[in-house]
Amino acid sequence: EVVVYENADLLAAAAAARLVTRIVDVQAARGSASVVLTGGGTGIGVLRELRESHARDAIDWSRLDVYWGDERFVPADSDERNEKGAREALLDHVPLAPERVHAMAPSDGEFGDDVDAAAAAYAKVLSGAAEAGADVPAFDILLLGLGGEGHTASVFPDSPAVHETGRSVVAVRECPKPPPTRVSLTLPAIRRAREVWLMTAGEAKADAVAQALAGAPETQIPVSGARGYRRTLWLLDRAAAGKLTKV
Ligand code: 6PG
Asked: What ipTM goes with this model?
């Protein structure tokens, strides 16, 4: 499913409105909901829009579980942390239950500079919250951005992470997008989500969007493999949709 908005601001506002509606619907149907956040300008921008939305308090923040699809392995108070960006944009402005915010460890946390230990610990958090027989929860909504060369979360073309078949959470080193060390869900873990929403804007992403929607192999265009098992929703601005053939 692909929805195109006139510009990046409208995209962010619409994505935030959709997020409120979806979370409210899930909470009405099942009591609680889970959302997986992403980093990057688009992902954080949507959270900022959500904070400013007057509809935001239709969400029961005490019954929302928050996870991350990837995180930079930097000190907790670094401006490069996706968690810090999310807290400043939204999370510190709403009454979330702190125990339901599941952050990936920073590089100055309990695991020190051991990024493999941080990745293993997050895998344990996910398996602890998963349904019987699964090692990752069936997240209700998993938000993702994408890069111009097709990366999503911290899964880059032809990288160890995109070839990972066993684990759900991996340490990423020498990441082409700084900072270089990260923790990321793998594509099989992403595909456990009920819904995956890909949100991106700008002409620089148009090639990757077109290749992914044309079914490019995920090892070359990782975002091509970012699919929800119930729904995959692309929220684009006109520039990022610029290379899609008019269907
Ligand atoms: C990160 C994100 C990354 C981001 C894309 C898009 O931690 O950097 O996980 O995957 O979503 O690079 O970033 P922009 O929205 O800023 O283009």
From this structure: 0.97
